[in-house]
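Bench notes, bay 3.
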Amino acid sequence: MLITVPASPGGIMKTVNYGGRCFWIFALALCFAAPAFAEQKTVVLQVDNMPCASCPIMVKTALSKVKGVTSAEVSLKSHSATVRYDDAVTNIETLMKATANAGFPSRLAVEKGKK
């Protein structure tokens, strides 16, 4: 992009090529903006193997350690885990694997989409 700008207070004009710089500034800004395009999703996992009061704590801890999880709420009463996560970083299979690795296999109950 060629832009004509005053070169000095005396009124002499010069043409400056900003094309290359603008492209790189835009590309750099786009790289840093990419996380803004990530989508927050909420999923409810059914966790059947939780017989005691400490089980939800272990499930929540396992889910919270997964990169991309922003919150995890686990209910002993409903045997479920409600998880908010960044779908650009993790997915439902990884969440279910995390609960299974902690000794609490889970399955998809509800996927709520954007939140």
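Next record in the batch:
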Amino acid sequence: MDANTLYQLNQGQAQQEQLEAAKKKILGLILSREAYERLGRVRAVNAELASAVELYLIQLYQAGKIRGYISDEQLKQMLLALSEKREPKISFRRV
């Protein structure tokens, strides 16, 4: 690897870290403490679902549709709704 490639990798990594910090800041503003902790536990088990919920919450925040904190119960409902959408439905037809 040459110096330019290493520089570009470092820039990309720094940018990624800035995005993560901004995401954590926004989530800290809109989630109750319990909801934030739950999202962390979900991330440990199912990172894809946690990322989908984070993206959804950030989009709502940026659109100005979130008033106050998202409670743990509201987060549970979002997780349930998004996890149901992602699970494939398998049905068997007997002939």
